[in-house]
Design a protein that fits this description.
By secondary structure, the chain is an all-alpha fold. It has helices spanning 3-12, 16-37, 58-72, 74-100, 110-117, 120-145, 152-176, 182-215; strands at 41-43, 50-52.
């Protein structure tokens, strides 16, 4: 038996605390990526659907949010959200700074940078407001529908759908009002909402597996 390889394999395994650090890092990075790529509008080329590209990273944000809440608790999820916002604020501050600083005559990228990075502060504020209101609505509606035990799964899905719809309306309206037409904004809201619901369903199995992985060795967690 090759004990060296076994030792190397064990050394590569993450303990409970290291998994939390990894999950938190990916969550914060996902927040920043979502802010950046939302500037791009994607043409789905199906039924006229068009949506901000931030929807591409939504499954990862969804999975990590649920894993953090499930494994580490609601308070840990709130702290992680604050870290995500802080990371995004730092990103916005630095990208705003590079727009202010002068460029040499040979540099021709200022207009492209300006198109992208002048939108990121607005997207950050919109995402934060929509996230708070959407989650408050979702929590409130979930509490109301769970007062009775009939058709809980259907009612919970309805609560999620309503929360997602409100989140999308607020986020896309605040992010793109005055930039695109009302019709285009309406199409993006509808498209983003439909894709978000699809991602919720697709991400559920991955969420469950990630929770199991993150909880492994929980009792042997180190400080």
């Amino acid at each position: 038996m090759n004990y060296t390889k076994i030792g190397e394999k064990k050394s590569m395994e993450l303990n409970f605390t290291e998994k939390r650090i990894l999950i938190t890092a990916f969550f914060c990075m996902s927040f920043t990526i979502a802010n950046l790529i939302t500037v791009k509008i994607i043409d789905i080329n199906f039924l006229g659907l068009q949506t901000p590209a931030g929807v591409l990273i939504y499954p990862l944000v969804y999975i990590l949010t649920n894993v953090i809440t499930e494994v580490y608790g609601e308070k840990a999820a709130q702290k992680t959200l604050v870290l995500g916002i802080a990371t995004d604020v730092l990103f916005v501050c630095m990208t705003t700074l590079i727009l202010i600083l002068p460029s040499p005559a040979f540099f021709e990228g200022d207009s492209a940078l300006a198109f992208v990075f002048t939108q990121t502060p607005r997207i950050l504020i919109a995402s934060y407001i929509s996230y708070l209101i959407g989650n408050l609505v979702n929590a409130r509606v979930t509490t109301l529908v769970n007062r009775t035990e009939n058709h809980l799964r259907i009612k919970n899905l309805g609560a999620i759908a309503l929360g997602e719809l409100i989140d999308n309306i607020i986020f896309i309206a605040l992010s793109f009002a005055g930039i695109y037409s009302i019709i285009d904004i309406f199409v993006m809201i509808f498209s983003h909402w439909i894709l978000s619901l699809i991602w919720n369903v697709i991400a559920q199995p991955a969420t469950e597996r990630t929770v199991i992985w993150a909880k492994k060795d929980e009792n042997t967690a180190t400080a």
